[in-house]
Amino acid sequence: MFEKIDxxxxxxxxxxxxxxxxxxxxxxxxxxREYVEDYHVEIATIHTGSCAIELIEGQGDDSxxxxxxxxxxxxxxxxxxxxxxxxxxxxxxxxxxxxxxxATPRRGKNNSLVAxxxxxxxxRVLYELVELGGSTKQQP
Length: 140
Description:
By secondary structure, the chain is α+β, with helices and mostly antiparallel strands.
């Protein structure tokens, strides 16, 4: 069901400072930036071969990422797996009794569809399913 890891998301409290750190220390460059309205987040994607790092900063008090950073501090937020058909994948997980955060997919970055598995169903790790859309289907 899961094809590969699409990205590892890191919640940050200052996106500009995080980007600067990845560029100056690791020599990595941001290849995509986007504001995702559904989650109230600004995202900066850094490709590192076959897996990306997604830096995410919450925008506004109602952002779940802002609440995450305020409660836990900056750090790894979730791991995202590519799936070919997100609706089919969600149905298979439901049939297995896996607790989901999203019963139906939502819009993600770059015209993707996304849904989350509840961390209580996966050893306290938040996992995201991503059905790539548009130009992202071409990425490694």
